[in-house]
Amino acid sequence: MASLNPVVFLAVVVICFIGPVVGDENTTCSVAMFGGDHGAYLACIAQFAHQCNWFPSPLAGLYSYQVWNGYDGFWQNGAVLETMANFIEFAKHQRYMSVVKGSHRDLYSLMEAYGPYPSFDDMGWYGLSYARIYELFGFQDFLQTAQDIFDWCWKTGWDSSNKCEGGMWFDNNVNAKVAITNVQMFHVAAKLYRLTNNTEYRNKSEMIENFLFANNFINSSTYLMSDGIDLDTCKPSNTVGFTYETGVLIGALSEMYRLTKNESYLGLAENLASAVIDYNSNTTGVFTEKNCDPDCDDDAKMFKGIFVRNLRYFMDTVNNATLRKKYQNWMEFQIQANLKQNMCNEVPISKCYIVFKDGPPSFKVTGPVFSSNWNGPFDYGAPMQQTSVLDLFVASILPGTKCSGVFCNYDPRIPPPKPMTCSSRPCPPGEDCCAYKHKASYTCCDKSQKCNKQGICV
Ligand SMILES: *[C@@H]1O[C@H](CO)[C@@H](O)[C@H](O)[C@H]1NC(C)=O
Ligand SMILES: *[C@@H]1O[C@H](CO)[C@@H](O)[C@H](O)[C@H]1NC(C)=O
Ligand SMILES: *[C@@H]1O[C@H](CO)[C@@H](O)[C@H](O)[C@H]1NC(C)=O
Ligand SMILES: *[C@@H]1O[C@H](CO)[C@@H](O)[C@H](O)[C@H]1NC(C)=O
Ligand SMILES: *[C@@H]1O[C@H](CO)[C@@H](O)[C@H](O)[C@H]1NC(C)=O
Ligand SMILES: *[C@@H]1O[C@H](CO)[C@@H](O)[C@H](O)[C@H]1NC(C)=O
Ligand SMILES: *[C@@H]1O[C@H](CO)[C@@H](O)[C@H](O)[C@H]1NC(C)=O
């Protein structure tokens, strides 16, 4: 037998990365069904794992305590719907469509799920996702609720005193104006104007735009964005924000270009994208959340994916082959980094540390699972970090990709919930598990706490 020469060996390694998942005895994803697009295939297996391990339906968990709600909170359940909708659109399939379609809740129900005073950015994710779902699939109730969310946020949260040119408050405490709320509302308003022609949305998008520029959120020499402003001076905090803030702004500027055809929006978006990528790239070129990786909290674990999601909107808006190729190559590099350093896909999958923080898996547990730092090493799988990488895979799907075959419609019934106990190691490393003996359920204690003999985190 001839030994493999290095070139052949390399080819084999690459094929393994994009080949079918070994060990998953009945996989519903293949490279062939997406006409060879490996971003779509990777998205397919990452989403399959996400749904099997944590989420028959992201929203179901919000309405049934500790069941199917593996995210850290309310907002991520809304934000992931946009990922799922984009995947359906970019690869032209119907996988998990019933989950997307079934995710509609009216404004009142969303407020009930969250508690009395949601911060406006948390509601903003539902506004963005619902507007996108309407844009792609035309479900009228999603458009209505996207408008209800925007209108409620505006009515409750816009500073009409005009101090610092207005702006959205962070929450009902009215003591902070931060980037994320304002870029989200900018994005939603511009999109709602495009979807409805209601000039109220256009006017409001202009008011938010004015607020952002009047307060110099964007540093004109570095193009890095501040995460907030000083309310006394109306000056930027100059604390560089997280990747997702600029990401959502890039999405908003893409919308503004579509409305105005003013090229300066695209130039600005490109400068912002370059600045965020430079600032947050590790020495190895891997995209990391500079403000927190490798120790990001459960919120920040999802941010990089939101940046990339919006970068794709920008690429589609510009539709310039040179620019598309530049960012496509960048995404490909990030994908390879994740596959090599940040993935666990062992056989059996139980060899991978997977956290089921708020409820048991409803289907057979499956891989691949990804952790939070794209630079690796893999530490544990959980839905926030899975979604971030899923957004990357979805954003990388080449235009024109089309699904064919029976599994393009894969959309399993949502099974009834099952109880789980602490003996299944459901909590992240360093967090004690506390069992409620009589209720056959559990909670994960904060890292600073321990579970006492009465089963209470203290
Ligand atoms: C897996 O295989 C079983 C038995 O062949 C079948 O009943 C089930 O529908 C399959 N599941 C998927 C996800 O294809
Ligand atoms: C908005 O107006 C434009 C231009 O008149 C038109 O092409 C488009 O169909 C309108 N959209 C809606 C949702 O009414
Ligand atoms: C939008 O703003 C313009 C000019 O500032 C104003 O004339 C118009 O009435 C506004 N439209 C709405 C719907 O508020
Ligand atoms: C922009 O960033 C640079 C470099 O951090 C800083 O020196 C400068 O003060 C910032 N500009 C403004 C207007 O804040
Ligand atoms: C385009 O936008 C820039 C920046 O907001 C503005 O200065 C310029 O006047 C706009 N151009 C047109 C034709 O409206
Ligand atoms: C960035 O790379 C350096 C050198 O490889 C490494 O020590 C560091 O941990 C990395 N940071 C992150 C967040 O991965
Ligand atoms: C596409 O983008 C590149 C790089 O920004 C630029 O040099 C080129 O002129 C653009 N092409 C078109 C047709 O706009």
TrEMBL record:
It holds the Pfam family Glyco_hydro_76. InterPro entries: 6-hairpin_glycosidase_sf, Glyco_hydro_76, MUG_Protein. Keywords: Signal. One of its GO terms (biological process) is carbohydrate metabolic process. Residues 1-23 form the signal peptide. This is Uncharacterized protein. It comes from Magallana gigas.
